[in-house]
Amino acid sequence: MTTRTEVLMDTLVTIRVLDSAADQAVERAFGWFYQVEERCTRFDERSELMQLTTRAGVPVEVSAILFEAVRFSVSLAEETGGAFDPTIGLRMEELGFNRNYQTGEQIRTAITDAAAVSYRDVQVDSARRTVTLRQPMVLDLGAVAKGLAVDLAARELQPFKNFCIDAGGDLYVGGLNPEGKPWSVGIRHPRIEHTFIDTFRASDQAICTSGDYARRHHILDPRTCEPAGTVATATVIASNAMLADGLATAAFVLGPIDGLAVLNRLGVEGLIVTPNLERYETRGLRRAA
To answer: Which helix (H) or strand (E) segment is 172 a member of?
Structure first.
């Protein structure tokens, strides 16, 4: 068995592979986290994302990693009617979510003529792999970048079949656990510490959770620029982590009724819990015995 933990993307990332010969693959898997963070973070003015911010109004050819994160974010924004919107970055800065976890440095973007923006002001061109920011803005890719890193790491580990990637609430479980069964994944209780509110079985799937317990009020409703408050925790189980990551955030913002409707429409599984601990869930959840 190979197990390794590092601090990346402002969280603990643990990779566990049920094969003692996986050291090099695990090294490459962690490498994807470094690459995604370097390109997609808004907490470093030298990142590719922040360099894109300085070039509003013109098409900019970007890396495959950054393009995929932006493309997917815009697509999800369209799918959710703006409940998910990556153009919320400047507002997040204004609320104080602008400190680099590695250096402690505060990032303040030099945008003085900020206008009201939305995902409709971001144009992506797949043929040319360009992104055009039609107005000055700061993109926040935090709700999809970690999921993208998990997916790239999981692709690196596929030859080993049985593995688990845990990136601070964003997980991908491949194959079977050490007992030869689907992995058991506990969902943290939003109000009681050291307790699970539910436990599911999963194999070759991603499980991502957005909750109000880690950083209260850090999830904004982009449509109002106010903290989303009708959900305590939203968990999504999907085929890949970027989809599960983004949809967990979207469901948190949309609320239990509309959030569940989106999950059902897109054919993923999920559990949404309100601050009063009311539960809303899709029909196909596989609970642990």
So the answer is: strand 170-174
